[in-house]
Amino acid sequence: MALGLGDEAPDFEANTTEGPIHFHDWIGDSWAVLFSHPKDFTPVCTTELGYMAQAKPEFDRRNVKIIGLSVDGESDHERWAQDIKETQGTAPNYPIIADADFKVSKLYGMLPASTSGDPLERTPADNQTVRNVFVIGPDKKIKLILIYPMTTGRNFDEVLRVIDSLQLTAKHKVATPVNWKPGEDVIIAGSVSNEEAKETYPDGWESPRPYIRIVPQPK
To answer: Where are the extended beta strands (E) located within 64-167?
Structure first.
């Protein structure tokens, strides 16, 4: 069954480039981003892994752990990390799951349950559906799912923007409008009555329509 927003992120144990992990324990009280790759030594993924290494301080600042996954073994991951360092300027500084048995890919619905065999005999095209981004909250629930084609590099700045929105809206009863960036105005959530809103926003709000109530971003 396909995973959806609000579902619990499946727990698992796996070997990574930083040792074995129990996924939910590894997340702990943090947020997490799991981003997957069809195979090691693929060009688009190489650029993505390098960028995420450079962007890690931004994720750290938001209390977000990042973890990669690729359908190959640990030794290939280690060799690939050297290529990433030499071509992108930064080696991965976060764990990468070795999913040579397809366990996690199947658990997260990225490969059919019937997938089997030697991962070394599979091409990137065989694993092209393993191009997902999952944002997971401290409650272990899935907050965002993105799926990209192999030919399009992911926009991880957008993932950071969405995390900013998710963390803000988890704390305050607001929603963020189109193209919102931190510091810009937000919208009072539709679940909040005008009476409740007046308690939080005694100075009122801008309301071009009764169902649109715009306020400054809460601190």
So the answer is: 64-70, 96-98, 132-136, 142-147
Supply the residues annotated as catalytic.
Answer: 45, 139
- Which helix (H) or strand (E) is 95 found in, with range? none
Q: Residue 136 and residue 31: Cα distance in Å, rounded?
A: 6
Strand stretches in the chain, DSSP E:
13-16, 19-22, 31-37, 64-70, 96-98, 132-136, 142-147, 174-175, 186-188, 206-209, 212-215
Encode the chain (219 residues) as per-residue pLDDT tens digits. Answer: 689 999 999 999 999 999 999 999 999 999 999 999 999 999 999 999 999 999 999 999 999 999 999 999 999 999 999 999 999 999 999 999 999 999 999 999 999 999 999 998 999 999 999 999 999 999 999 999 999 999 999 999 999 999 999 999 999 999 999 999 999 999 999 999 999 999 999 999 999 999 999 999 998
* pTM recorded for the entire structure: 0.95
Distance of alpha carbon 107 from its chain centroid, rounded?
16
φ and ψ of 162, to 5 deg = -65, -40
CA pair distance 109, 130, nearest whole angstrom:
9
141 and 6 in contact (C-beta within 8 Å)?
yes
Buried b (16+ CB within 10 A) or exposed e, 91-116: bbebbbbbbbebebbbbbbbbeeebe
